[in-house]
Design brief:
Length: 139
């Protein structure tokens, strides 16, 4: 298991490096490889990490129908880990994606969910930032 974990981590970090270099195809290939390895060793946090990266990569190229299930998978993993703050962040990502996709209702649902989660976590500043984003966004 240790060897696959190291390979998964390396592929995941390479995906970020490629993304920063704007080599998006290579970034997606590495993220898919990392995701596959994390799945094989059932490493939930790694799966969440790579699903989020893939969501970002698909979103950047306007492939929202591919980004959505990746973000949803990330959210499911974070929920299973009990990571409420990460769940709130994923709802923000989903809200931004749905806005870019032209799906106003879905964007608002996710932003409101994120806002409520941040309030429950006592992160009032983040909740207020989301309120400002909803008020000023192109919705």
């Amino acid at each position: 298991m240790g060897h696959k974990r190291n390979q998964a981590d390396a592929a995941g970090h390479l995906s970020i490096i490629y993304q920063q270099r704007q080599e998006y195809q290579s970034a997606k290939e590495m993220a898919h490889r990392a995701l596959q390895l994390f799945e094989e060793i059932e490493h939930i946090q790694g799966i969440a990490w790579q699903a989020g990266i893939l969501g970002d990569l698909f979103c950047a190229e306007g492939a929202f129908e591919c980004a959505e299930p990746m973000y949803r998978r990330c959210l499911t993993c974070q929920k299973s880990l009990g990571n409420d703050e990460a769940c709130a962040v994923v709802h923000v990502w989903l809200g931004a994606m749905y806005t870019a996709w032209g799906r106003r209702y879905d964007a608002m649902l996710n932003w409101k969910q994120a806002q409520e989660m941040f309030r429950q976590l006592g992160q009032i500043e983040q909740a207020e930032d989301i309120q400002k984003m909803m008020a000023s966004g192109p919705l």
